Amino acid sequence: MDFNVILWIVIMVMLLVVEALTMNLTTIWLAVGALASIFFTLAGAGGVMQFGVFVVVSAIMVFFTRPLVKKYVAGKYQKTNSDSLVGKSARIIETVNNKLETGTAFLDGKEWTVRSESDDVVLNEGEMVVVREIEGVKLIVAKEGSGIPKLVQSVVV
Questions:
Q1: Are residues 24 and 63 in the same domain?
Q2: Which of 1, 65, 104, 140 is 20 to 30 A from 7 (CA-CA)?
Q3: Are 13 and 35 contacting, i.e. CB atoms less than 8 angstroms apart?
């Protein structure tokens, strides 16, 4: 067997081992390029042609098939329990004042520590607010009808 064939087989096996260890869908595409180079080597292509085939096939695999495979492998984003609270309405049960670090709201049958989206806004007991985001275990809220939620802004912008 030709030395170049053995070299490409070794390269392909090493790339497959790295892929098996990382499972990141990165080196698998290079392994396909190495496989193509094996066939070109067996067909009698020179070293420059073998390397060119490796680069071109690997690039085609990375740029055209990787996004499709990642789409199917990654699946759909599923909200966590806390993500599902963004956009929901809550009722303030303790005045929210960021400067005094106070504030509690009632949402989905539970009391939550709450902070206003803006440090200058004080939300009083009984007011209805909308959850804009979650930081740790605190809900970041704004008065109902006070603009576009940050989650939506990040998608729009």
A1: yes
A2: 65
A3: no
CA pair distance 122, 91, nearest whole angstrom: 14
> Of 74, 96, 121, which residue is a domain's last?
74
Diameter of the chain measured on Cα atoms = 82
pLDDT digits 0-9 by tens, 76-94:
555 566 677 888 999 999 9
Please indicate, yes or no, whether residues 56 and 98 belong to a single structural domain of this protein: no
Domain end, chosen from 42, 74, 106, is at 74
**Total domains present in the chain:** 2
| The pair of three-digit structure tokens given for residue 145, joined into one six-digit string | 């009808």
- pTM as predicted: 0.47
Q: Each residue of 102-152: pLDDT tens digit?
A: 999 999 888 999 999 888 889 999 999 999 988 888 999 998 876 554 544
- CA separation for the pair 99, 73 (Å, rounded): 45
Bridge partners (DSSP) of residue 141 are 116, 131
19 alpha carbon, distance to own chain's centre = 20
